[in-house]
Each structure stands twice: as structure tokens, then as C-alpha cells.
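Progress report, Aim 2. The chain analyzed during this reporting quarter is listed below.
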Amino acid sequence: MTRLRALCSFVSSVLLSTAFAPGCEPIEDPPADPDTSPTGVPDTSEAEGDAARTRIDLAGRVIDGYGQPLAGAIVAVDGATTTADGDGRFTLGGVAAPYDILVATDDGFFAVAYLSVTRADPTLTVPMGTDPIDTSIDGELAGDVDDDGANRASIIAVGEGFGFTGLRNATADWKRFGPLFAKHWQVPAEVRLYALQWQVATPEVVSHLPAPTTFSAFGISSPLELDGEPTAMSVSLSSAAILGTGRIRGTVTLPAGYTLGFKQHWVSFAPNADMVFYFDDSPDLAIDVNTPRLGAVAGDPRFGLEVAASGPAGATAWVARTGLAYDATGLTVAVPPPPTDLVAGAAGVFGWTPTSPVSLVGLRPSEAVGPTLWVVTGADTCTWPDFSAVGIDIAPGRGYRFGVAAMSGLADVEEATAAGGIADPWVRFTLGMRAERDGGLSFSDEVVFVTPR
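Predicted C-alpha cells for the chain:
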């Protein structure tokens, strides 16, 4: 496997500074029903331990933060270990459910534990990205393009793989674009270009995306397969594709003590073909943005919104709303509050007050280089993890940092291990990609501790 790395963004340094710990147990009283386990799985006997757990055969998959298969990942349950194949798939037979499952990269740099899982087909996400290919695309806009370029900007989005967006401002040669550096594909990758032309109220602003006023043309290129070599493409715009201008309106609500970082709006034409058309880093909590009403040539595009905020003591939060209509109104986008009351006990026991049904616990070295560990759990306390089954041993007496993130949008750990895993949206955002379903992350500050001896 190639060396894996995590990419940086507003919250990626926080996500990649979190780690998870197996062995977590809820501190609340168990259900009163004597015939049901704490995870809702019927007991098969009155005996303690494995005899009281249903045996199942696992057929799962390991993916990275881009949703791509993670070949060579090491997977372990109850001491039984296997390795994911080239498509990230693995099997383990006779597993007692509910089970805690560990997964690690073959270089030992990243590992995740998912606790109290019952499904037979888990998708396990390791929140990171594989090394990208390095290719580029350039070309020219054609068709219904206003030659004067006054007050106009155009975006080129590369989709049908992993999206990349480039901004074209009003310049003498603004119809030319590129090179767009496509950094997230596996080769070969089939891509298209999506282009949108609009007018802005402040054309002198070129460092980011000012508010659009109207939209004038749209186009989609023919598909092309990338092979890692520089590529030339063109896309023809049509004014007939624009049926008018819509408007999305609403408001953002923040936890106490938080300040707004930014609001970012995009239109989604296809999976991973998301075009950002407005970036607002003002402190205004109001959502009010013009949107393009697009014809049938664009398919059935939907709109999305990301909101990022920062809180006291280094806390950060992010939330996404997706699937919005071009004229959605009355939106309330609530930024989730972070977990509180973090405690790192001397005996390697960690606790916190959760603010969502699923928490993402993180453990990372505070000084020297070492493995970064995560745990996905529905509990509110856990013990220092033992990842030795997947080849990771943490020496005692080492300095580490402990943090917890609330994962809004997940009902339980079962949903976190469903198809697609936690790659979308909680990890995708940190890798610079747009979310494709609602959700969010809210990170606590970190607590420094020493690994137990």
C-alpha cells in the first residue's frame, strides 16, 4: 500500500488529532428487559460471555476518507485477524455479536475501533486519504460566452471521479482555463467538465467567491478518461440552460460562545461533481444567496451548504445541509455543540459528556511521532485501547492527547458502519470535498495525558 496521508482544511488538523479507543462501555444503567442486550440484540441464553452472543459471519469492506478501497488494511475481532484484499474487502467467520472491530493501515500509522457492532456487512472507514495521482486539465470555454467578461466569473468543475473546482475571473483571456490539477483520482478515471457563468456585484474581488447576482450560461463536456497525463478539454456553454435565478434563505444558529467561520454554497450535478459558487466569510448568521435555476441539460441538480464555526479553548465545529432546492427558504442550520467534561483518568479510563448519539474519540501523540488512533462509540466512557491485534503497540509513559467529537446525523454505531461508512460527510469535509448527505462534526478541546504503565 502506498503511504497514506491526511489532508488539511479548517478542521482537518483537529480530526487528525483525534483517535478512538476500544473497550468503551456505557455508564448508564442497562435496559430493564432481561431478554435484550444493551445493543438491542436478543440474548440466546442466560449464560455470560460469548455463549450469550449470536454468532455471525462477517463480509465487510475497508475504505479511506474518499470512499476508496483500502487494500492491505488489517482487521481484527476478538483476536481473529485478517487482511483486506485489493478491493478493501474482508471476511471473518463465527464472530460473536455484538462485537468490537479494529482496523489499521498496514504501515501502522492509523487505526480505528468500532464498538458494539452487530451488522454482518460492516463498512469501516479509516479517516484519511490515499496518495493522489498528479495530472492536470486545461482548455477553453465556448458557446454562449460573453466576450467582454465584465462582472463575470466561471467555474469549471471536474466530476465523475473526485471533483476539482477552478475559478475564472473577468480577464482578457478569461475563456481559457487551466491547468486544473486533479489530485484525488485513481487511474483511470472518467471525468466531465461542468461550467457555470454568472455575474457578481463586486467584480474587483478575485481572491474568493463574492455573492452572485444573476446567472447567464451553463454547459457539460463529453466524458474523458484520465490516465495521469496532462489533458486538454473544452466545454460549450448555453444560455438556454439557465431558466432563471432562485434564492436560498435561512439562518445559522451557533452554540454559546461560538463565532461563525464561513458559509459555503455549492450546486451538485452528480456524485463528486460539486461546484462552489459562493464563499461567505462574514460574521452574518443570515443565509441569503442567489442560485441558478437550471434546465434539463443539467439533470436534477441540488444545492448544498457548509457552515464552519470556532468556539472557546480551541473547539471547532462544522455542519452540512444537502439536497436543497434552488428556492429553499426558512432553513435553520444548527451548528452542533461539542462534547464536554473530558476526563483522562490515571488508570487509562476516559470519560466525557456526549452531545450526540455517536462520539468520535481521538488519541494522538503529543510530541514524538506515533500512531493516531480513533474510536467510534455510542458510549460516554472508554479505556486505553489495545490495538496489538492489528500490529500497533503503544509504549507506556508516553505523552498523548485525548479529544472527542460529536458526530451529528448518525443515530448509532450501526449507521456509522453502513454502506459508505463515516466517509461522508464527516471525513470528506476535512479532505476538501463536499458532503453528499446531512451531518456535522463538533470537536472538543484536547486533554493531555500519559499512557498507563
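The first helix runs from residue 12 to 15. The radius of gyration is 24 Å. These observations will guide the mutagenesis work planned for the next reporting period.
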